[in-house]
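Ligand-bound model needed. 3,4-dihydroxyphenylalanine.
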Amino acid sequence: MVSEDPTKKTLSELGVRDATELAFRFTGLRAQLQKELKHAKGPGGWDSLREAWVGSGDSVKSRITANWLRTAPDSLRAAVARDLENLINEVFVLSTVMRPLDQLRATQADQVAAQFLNVQHLFDTEIEECVDEIDLGVSRTFWLGRSSGVLTHITDSWLKTASPQLKRIVGAEFNKLKNYVETKIEARRAAIESGAEESALLRERVDLSLPGVIRPIGSHHLIRQVFQEIEDIFVSIGFSVVEGPEIETPYYNFEALNIPEFHPVRDDMDTFYLELPKGALTPLLLRTHTSPMQIRTMEKQKPPVRVIVPGKVYRRDNPDATHSFIFHQVEGLAVDTDITFCDFTGTIEYFVKQFFGSGVKTRFRPSYFPFTEPSVEFDVSCPFCAGTGTAASGGTCSKCKGAAWIELFGAGMVDPAVYGFVNYDAKKVSGFAFGIGIDRLAMLKYGIDDIQAFFQNDVRFLRQFP
Ligand code: DAH
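Prediction:
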């Protein structure tokens, strides 16, 4: 270690910037120490080795103190001091236990005992310094390691070379020391472990006085909220909620609803057909409305029937502010032995007033749907301008475009032809049905001008409806 002796340079010259790099340098020094210890011979050799490493003149110790410790950055100073102390201790211990007893001038029983006591003191100093399991692991290897632990060195250098008259006393002292070291390491380990547990408990203690972490829990999509609102209103007057498949057969989507194959209304309900294997029994399509559930419900159930059906529906439409190829409806169906047109309009009016407020008026106009007869289109007096067509600011109401009325949804008395498809006796039963477009209703009620906003899922939009 002459020319490239690292202890002659400062840490910054060596490029040592953190504890890992520092540990690496000390490991290098230890390897050097081991090498020199192996080659030390004769009392003079051992003494000069000690001088070179820990002597008060120019030694490794004094160079590290001057070049590393004094110039160390604050963040490394404590580590340098500790590593240096350990190294010095190691030099003392190893240069003692690797030297034959006679070269230590221990030829009497009491001198032997004194050497053992000396080693024990060095051990004590070191073990007290161990603050965690890592330190302790290093010390355990240093002292008890099989191939080059301190105790192994003592066996090799002291026990095996002892004169016959000293052998017994060296053996006894050795066993005493070994016991001492093992017991103390174990005790230290237990202390560190319980200390570690204690400090871990302290660290992990829950402080109930701290404010909690607020976890955003999200909210229902506006469409889901409107479904819920509508369901609540109808459930409160005796309807139950059922759901049906989004993939339908043309029979349920069209035929059983009195829309035969070449009926012109099919043009309004262009939709997506599924690609099926050749020979499939029936084509399958994405339902264009929730009305097929009228049929499915009546097939399953005898009157009285009172259901609403919320769900997704599909049409081959090009997306724009008022069109989407996917949208939402709530279907309604009530069938019983004596349901009248009055029950029908009363029910619808009740719903509309619950939904928009009791101030609104309703009206219906004749319309046409193949599965209702008569069919109507329900309007509500514009809830935004109180049915005046004039906005509060004086201009034309933007919601009803000055019409004072807003077209709400289609409905009607169930066409007797439909009962024929579900084995109901058209002479005994009557009923009404309606189909509410949810997206349009939500847009109206919440002032949304683009249906696409429902499907883009931009959280800035969604957050407006918590
Ligand atoms: N299914 C129709 C559509 O999607 C809406 C509809 C109209 C449903 C009248 C009904 C009804 O139940 O009676 O255009």
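The first strand starts at residue 240 and ends at 241.
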